[in-house]
Amino acid sequence: MSALSKAAKRKPSVPASGVDERELGDLYRKLRELGVSLVGADGKSENLPDNIYSFLYRLLADLRAGNFVTILQGKAELTTVEASNLLGMSRQFLINLLTQGGIPFHKVGTHRRIYVRDVLAYKAKRDIGRRRILDDLARTEQEQGTYDKVPDDFNPQPKKRSGQTFFRKH
To answer: What distance in Å separates the CA atoms of residue 130 and residue 124, rounded to the nearest whole number?
Structure first.
C-alpha cells in the first residue's frame, strides 16, 4: 500500500496535544518575527531562500489551524485506483480518460502509473472549468430573473392532519 493510500485512510485532521500546540505556536511566531536560517551539524548557518521560508510559513500556519497536510514529491506515482480515488471518479472512467489522452501516464510492465503532479494539474483544470460553468449559469439565471423563481408546475398538495394545514401556497 502506497503512502498516499495510507494517508487517505487517516482522519482528515489530527488534534495536537497542548504541549505540541504551544511549541508549534512558538515556532510559528519565531518564524514570523525573525529571519530564519538553517544551521548545519558543522555549525555553519545558511539563510533560507524566500520560497522555502514562505513554504514553511504556510505549512506551520496550516498545522497550527489543525489542517491535515500531505507533502508529495512531484514525481510520486499513483496507481489507477489511487488516482481515481483522488479525483472522485471510477477507475474505469479514469482509464478511459487516460487512453483518450486527458491525463499523461506511463506503464510499469502492464500497469498504468500516473504522476501525482499530472493528476493534481488535471483536477485543478477540471475544478476551474466547473466553477466557471456554475458562475456563468448563476449569472445567466440572475440576469433572466429566474434564479429564485418557482417553476409553474411546482404545486405540492398541502398535508392535512386532523383539520390542520401544514403547508399553504401563497
So the answer is: 10
